[in-house]
Each structure stands twice: as structure tokens, then as C-alpha cells.
Amino acid sequence: MTRDDALLSVRDLALDYGNGRGVRDVSFRLWPGEVLGIVGESGSGKTTLLKLLGGQLAPDAGTIHYRMAGGDMVDLNDLSEARRRHLGRTELAFVHQNPRDGLRLAVTAGGNVGERLMADGARHYGRIRAAALDWLERVEIEAGRVDDRPTTFSGGMQQRLQIARNLVSGPRLVLMDEPTGGLDVSVQARLLDLLRGLVADLGLTVVIVTHDLGVARLLAHRLMVMQGGRVIESGLTDQVLDDPREPYTQLLVSSVLAA
Amino acid sequence: MSGTEGYNFAYLDEQTKRMIRRAILKAVAVPGYQVPFASREMPLPYGWGTGGIQVTASVLGADDTLKVIDQGADDTTNAVSIRRFFARTAGVATTTRTAEATVIQTRHRVPETPLTGDQILVYQVPIPEPLRWLEPREAETRALHALGDYGVMQVELYEDIAIHGKIKRSYDYPVEVADRYMMSPSPIPKFDNPKLSDCPALQLFGAGREKRIYAIPPHTPVRSLDFEDHPFDIDHPGTPCALCGDTESFLDEIVTDDKGGRMFVCSDTDHCAERQAEAGHDA
Ligand SMILES: Nc1ncnc2c1ncn2[C@@H]1O[C@H](COP(=O)(O)OP(=O)(O)OP(=O)(O)O)[C@@H](O)[C@H]1O
Ligand SMILES: [Mg+2]
To answer: Are residues B258 and B151 in the same domain?
Structure first.
């Protein structure tokens, strides 16, 4: 593919929190339908990079070009606040590791799922509710729970609700930060299955941050390995995991095999 | 007037009044937008309408006739003290008749008698920010207003329908002014919301503690938020007023004895008295 097909084109991205930590020299492209995994040890800059992509942090340097639904390529950091927010609740989605950061806990499951639609102008209660019910079903939450608050949900259900709340607007780029982190192993497996199904059915373009190389292998087409704020290795998932080039990646892979 | 020497007309000094008038002009220019102002200490506690009083003081002229309403009534302690305050500090005429007033300061009601272009209605506002309970961060609510990003309020209304089958909010029901800003109409019953729209009178809102002034200029469209399939509506109990028989005015339920006796009467005492007087004439 040529550069022009890319949905996301990141160049020389850098952010320093002021303490020498953050990310630097990050460049990559992402094509529609691709799932890019970001792996690396704790503190390597994965969440920072994701937040830069999602516009929650502004970079010190570098560009993030995004292809809008209309075809125009825009630098996310040049957008007005109004357009960036609009994009953030329509075309982009951000799934937090802790579902409590991505849900409104005082609002019912249906209200949580319907919010992006309402923020984008939906004003027909019946249709909003129908969309909420449809999405609850897709993430395997019983319709009978639609008027319950997420505080009454298990961790796995909360995470599935957060995913429904994000996907309801049909986003073109989904950013996920450790979506299976903090869950029991059996719950993780079910969520992973669900995510695989959604990614395949909807042809989602995803950037997923994970500690878990098993998750990376199951979901990601390509991987970027981060260390100390830099991308030290990237390539097709199987290639990176089965035949790592960098000593650091070799360590990362072997520690998982040992686990 | 004894005891008021040394005070300026309507209590506030001219410089303060000019500052407040500038805020009012800005509020009129941007309907529904909350304009910050340097709220002054008033010789009344917050909650007694210090914001409304400052607005009233700034628009009042020597020829004005002032009416003060508290929950529809002219004779509550609050209404009486504010009326007396301006009678003493500005020497203006006061009235309880809506039709005779040129400036009406109100808490929690809009008069039943239709207002005219010669009148100004000043609302006392405790909490000017309609998004306050949904978004406690001030910087964020400002951003939401600036961007017209009001989905979160719609979620609130969605929740009401999901849980109660209908939008339950019965007062301080949020409105959208001139197709742009979301605004709190102050804690008036939603029954009064339709009166805000296309009203010939200038409507000014003053929040003293929160230091905000906002406005609805005459004949401005004001829309109560709703859903296409759950449109805004006002539910009248259907009972007529026990005193004047009106079937369309907003009613208060009052307890008449200690045996559980109750009756419904007009909340707007001036409106009710007018109707009773008319009925007396006709009889
Ligand atoms: N707000 C902040 N202020 C200062 N330093 C920060 C801040 N947030 C993160 N850092 C530092 O920046 C580096 C990258 O953090 P980041 O959260 O991106 O790592 P991560 O790869 O997501 O780690 P984890 O796997 O633990 O979630 C770390 O050294 C972290 O301590
Ligand atoms: Mg992280």
C-alpha cells in the first residue's frame, strides 16, 4: 500500500513529562482494518503513546496525521478543540484499562451506551434505546440489565460495557489500553474472544496496548515493542514474537514463555 | 427618608451599577450565556436573592414601579423585605399587581398575567450552571458551553425516561436559548417554561453567590429539552383553584386544618386576587 492509504501516520512523536520520561522518536503508520499491538515493560511509554494518539495529551514534537471519514488527512494536533472533541466521540474510541475511567458509574448501562449517540445529536429515545440494547447483546450483556448501573456489574461486564459504549458510534479508530488487564484469567479469555469477534466482524482498526503477549498474539497483526519511551522493534506479530531481533524483545518473549 | 442618607439610589454605588449593566448588556447580546460579574456583598444573606437584587438595583429608575414575587406570592418575608429595601433605598413605587409593575423581581415563578414589552423580569438564581450536577469542574462546563456539547444533559433526561418512564424533572427544567446556549431557568416549575419563549419582556437572571448574570432578550425562542418521541409537556393536575376557579394556572397545595384537609389554590396570589375581584364584580 502507498502512504496515502494510511488511516494514521505518526511521525517523530515526542513527549517529555518534564522528568526525562515519556515517549520519543515514535513513527509508524496504520492502515484500515489493521490491529497494531504495543508491548513493553511497565513504564516504557505505552499509555503515553496511546493518550497522544487519542488527543488526551499534546506532544512536544512530531505529527499525528489522521484520515477523516471524508478522506482529508488532518494533523490531530492542529484541529480546533471543537473538532477534536467531535472526532473523539464519533470516529475515535478510547477503551481504558480500568472501566471505571471510561464509564459513567452513576448512569445506567443504556445511558452509558447511548451517550455518544446523544452527544452527536440523536434525540429519539426509542432509537437510542434500541441501539443500546443491540450493543448490550453484542457484548453479551443481558437486555434485562439495560437500566442497571455499572456499579452493579462485575469487572468483566464493566469492561464489555465500556467497549459497547465506545463502539456504538461506529468509530474508525479504536484505541485500547490493556483492555483485559485486571481481570481474572477466565474472564480475560471470554473478553478476548469477544474482542476478536468484533474486530473481525466490524473490520475495526485498532491500536491495543498490552502487557500480555498472549493477547498480542491473538489480536494483533503487527507489534511495536517499546522500551524507555522508544519503539525498539516492530514487525508482524509472529515475526516479532517467534524471531525477536532485539535482546530486549528476546527477554520479553522468554519471560512470558517462562511464566 | 430617614436612615438611608449616605446610601446611593438603590443602595449600590454608580460604579458598581455600571459594571453590572455592562454584564447585563453582554448577557443580552449573547442570550443564555452566563456572564461573570463582580458580585457585591448585600445587606441580605445569600439565598435571599442577592443576585436578583443587584440586577434590580442596576436597572431600576426613579419612575419604575417594582413588584417582588416569592414562589408566586407577594406577601412572604422574603418578598416583603426586598420590596421594602427598594422602597427605602430608591424611593420607588411598589405594587403587587403584575400589570402595574415595570420591574418584577421573582423567585421560583413567572407571573400568570402575560408580560409586556415595557416590563423587565428579574429572576433570583441559586445555581446558574445547568450542568453543575453532571460536571463539577468549572473549566469543563465552560468548555461544554463554548462547544455546545450538551450530550451529557440529554443522557440525564434519557435516564429519567429509562427509570421513571418519563422526564421527571418538574422544576429548574433546562432550556436551550436561541438555538445555542443551554440555560437554567432558575427553580421555576417547568409549568412556567413555555412563558420564557417569545416573551415580550426582557428577562434577566442574577446569581449572587455564583457571580453570574444571564439574559433572555425580548421575543427570543426558548426550547425546553426533550426527545422527539418524549416531547416536553406540562402536566396540570386538572383541579380548579379553590379560590378563583382557574383551571389553567399553576396551583399550590395547601393544608387547611390538622385533620388532613387540603386544597389547591393559585400559586400566583395577584392573579388569583384579580380573578376573585372580577368574579365579585360580575356577581
Ligand atoms: N503524568 C506523568 N508525570 C510524570 N511522569 C509520568 C507521568 N505519566 C507517566 N509518567 C512516566 O512516563 C513513563 C511512561 O509511562 P506510561 O504510563 O506511558 O508507561 P506504560 O508503558 O503505560 O506503563 P504500564 O505498563 O505500567 O501501564 C513512566 O516512566 C512513567 O513513570
Ligand atoms: Mg500503561
So the answer is: no
- Number of structural domains (chain B) is 2
Shortest CB distance from A107 goes to which of B147, B155, B161? B155
For range B74-98, the mean pLDDT = 94
Q: Is B2's pLDDT higher than 50? A: no
Residue B62, domain member (yes or no):
yes
For residue B276, give its domain range.
236-283
Q: Do A111 and B152 touch (CB under 8 A)?
A: no
For the whole model, what pTM was predicted?
A: 0.90
Ligand nearest, relative to CA of residue A43: 1
* Interface touch B151/A89, C-beta < 8 Å: yes
Catalytic residues of B: 32, 241, 244, 266, 272
How many Cα atoms occupy the beta-carbon half-sphere of A147 within 13 Å? Answer: 9
Q: Are strands B202-207 and A61-67 parallel, antiparallel or unpaired?
A: unpaired
Chain A interface, mutation test: which of B147, B154, B168, B232, most A Cβ atoms within 10 Å? Answer: B154
- Pair (B83, B216) in one structural domain: yes
In a domain, B198, yes or no: yes
Strands B175-177 and B222-224: antiparallel
Task: Give 3-state DSSP helix, strand, coil % of chain A, rounded to 5.
Answer: 45, 25, 30
Residue where a domain stops, chosen among B224, B245, B265: B224
* Ligand in nearest proximity to the CA of A231: 1
Contact B163/A at CB under 8 A = yes
Residue B79 belongs to a domain: yes
CB contact, 8 Å: B228 with chain A?
A: yes
Quick: pLDDT tens for A82-101: 899 999 989 999 999 999 99
| A249: nearest Cα among A233, A228, A231 | A233
Whether B140 and B51 map to the same domain: the answer is yes
Cell numbers for A217: 498474539
Q: Rounded to the nearest 5 degrees, what angle is found at the Cα of B7, between the Cα atoms of B3 and B12?
A: 135
Q: Are residues B38 and B60 in the same domain?
A: yes
**CB-based contact (8 Å) between B166 and chain A?**
no
Q: Give tens-digit pLDDT for A230-254.
A: 999 999 999 999 999 999 999 888 8
